[in-house]
Give the backbone structure.
Amino acid sequence: GFKVLASASHYWPLEDVDGIHEFRDTNGDIVEGMVNKGIYVTEKKGVTFLFFGSYRNSCISNPEACGPEGVTFSFFWKTQDQQAKLLPASGGRVISSGFKICSNEGEGSVEFYTRGNAMMKWKASFSPPGPYWTHILFTWQSREGLKVYVNGTLNTTDPAGKVFYDYGDASANLLTGTGGDPARRYVNGAFDEFVIWERALTAREVKQYFTAAVGVQVLLSSTLPWSLMTTTANPVLPTDAYQPVIAALSQVGGGSRAPSSLLRHLQNVSSSLPSESLSEHVALSLAQAFLKAIEDFMLLSNWIDGPESPVVFSSLIHTIDTVMAHLSLNLDGNSLPLTLEGSSSVADYTVVKMHPQTLNVSHYRFPSRGESYISIPSEAFHGKAWITIVGLLYHNMHYFFHNINPEDTRIAEAAAYKGYMISASSYLISIKVEPLPQLSYNLSGSPLITIQLTHRLTPRQYSQALNKSNRVHLYCAFLDYSNGTGVWSNEGCVRESGDLNYSVCLCNHLTNFAILMQVVPLKLTREHQVALSSITYIGCALSIFCLTITLVTFAVLSSVSTIRNQRYHIHANLSCAVLLAQALLLASFQLSPATLPCKILAILLHFFFLSAFAWMLVEGFHLYSMVIKVFGSEESKHLYYYGIGWGCPLVICVISATSSLDSYGESGNCWLSLENGAIWAFVAPAMFVILVNIGILIAVTRVISRISADNYKVHGDANAFK
């Protein structure tokens, strides 16, 4: 336990207190302030200041500067009678620019603040310490929120926090004292062992430190053992009408039910909830238990790749809406505003009951942070005595809507492209308001709700969207349950702006929203297809005919000694490579993609077109050796040339086909795929040949120009220069 304390960044032991063990080094001296020694100053009013130095940009003074490790604050605390002599370290509150701890006659509380683009507050309440020394420790991490431990045991949490606009003393360093709101009486208290860690302790470390600090079976001056003073109580299941429902939901994941049976069970639960009011605690327990059951269903589900997946999960979302609506309408809200917030692996959720007059911002936004949200103008709530808002941001539900038939939607633009499936490309977000807000019927009017959703594209979707031969359609859509089953529709919504990374929509109603994406290949008109086909067949046929005549000519004249040189061998091989490539290209139009013959033909096309470029490179090398620099004998050059012309393309094709056979003959034709980078097995060698030949062309042209200029000077023949 003292090893945990030794890892603290700041430590103030304060006074010697019977029963609380201080941290001493091997010499018996108190180790005070691991980063810098703390200083405490007692004033006449019994206020104690703890200074940790000028670290305004540190994790302590500005929790937003905390990394994922978080921060931990720990101290011992007890209340005192007004007549009792104040200990030097005393006060009713602990305040800093990042947190505030208060104790009044009714409760103790921890409030934790962050300052940034969105000012946030986390608050957790606990039983006040009373007249006995009580250990209070709280941790905060951006991912997990606020956790409060009392006497070594987790007492209460606030994982999500909420937006807050007016808090604390922004100029305070670290202060314990009795100052504050004069209208509110704070109980005087005493403090000891104030410790700060610039990381969040684990539950095990909290227990270890607490045990070491108080010792085992140590009795305090109050003669009560620590085990009897613990204010922590395990959560108790509600004993009202909702207790059997919550208990049943908590058992859902334990059995071996089929997904269809589990879905029916969840639907039965949603339709048979008792019509009785819920306290905040019961409502939170019900929401957590139900969403945990939803998580179990999603883990069991085997529909993710099935055609019925969209229908099943639209029904599941409707079931969640039913339960959350019941929860919000029956939530016991004697004192408004009332906010219920939470997070699970299924969704972040919030339930708010409030008087709209207390909404002091121009828009209500859910969630309060993040790049995906719904915003409702406050003017839409005018004339309402009170409103109830239920918001849900689903984390993974969009994965189950990736195989939507456009004919099963009410999106006219999507239905026009039959056979091209639709998929959800963003989080699903839901908001429900009772009574309904006053929104414009006209999408060009106001007020309207604004929905911004960040796209969540899979690598395949992103590749398809970037392919210039595809057209991407993005729809602002919602699940329409007007006919009993959830059908995707875009009625009453318009996509105002966005790009491939996000969309902003305007809608005149509330429900479940998502961005749907449909990728449609661009199709040529019939006239263009005929024209391109004619050019291809006529051009290739003419090329093949002329190349054939060229090869026959070389063969007939091969007995003539003047033609037996490397230049004509190179020409013949180049002509042969181009002729075979053209012939195979025409043959490939007759084969269906994704078949074995098409794959074989794609590999052969790759080889012969690469060979054509390779023999063009040989043409360049041969010209270079004739004009600029002679290298090698005739026989050695012969071997080099054939090695480059046929050998190099063969090596490239073997490597490419071996490593990426699926890239041949799959994407609409018998050629290399354009989607996964395989096309570079052709483009890169071709670009290399072109660049080298450009360099050779420049060098040869310079030499010939210089020779021609010299001849012109000697002979004066302008035609020779030209």
